[in-house]
Amino acid sequence: QVQLVESGPGLVEPSQTLSLxxxxxxxxxxxxxNFWSWLRQPPGKGREWMGAMAWSGDTYYSPSxxxxxxxxxxxxxxxxxxxxxxxxxxxxxxYYCARGTDLEEVRxxxxxxxxxxxxxxxxx
Length: 124
Hints:
seven-stranded mixed sheet
């Protein structure tokens, strides 16, 4: 059974960089055809796919966030990390990591396994 656990700060000040970590167990992050995504859901809005790290190490991003988002991994710790720069209150959301197996599917939000989500507020 694949388990994903998000961790990071619950509060970030505007203009700062948000850094979140997804710790993965039950699957190898380098196993073929796995895509490890970050998604978010702002209050009162729909869920948005932000980007993904493929098993190969390639990264893919939503065009709207490409200039601010960066996804990396630590294979020794089985972790995938999201960094989002220059945050504003509009980045307030519940952030999720998730596992998918097809790039086009994950782009539209379809994933096989999900973390529980972590609430992040951007405020001074």
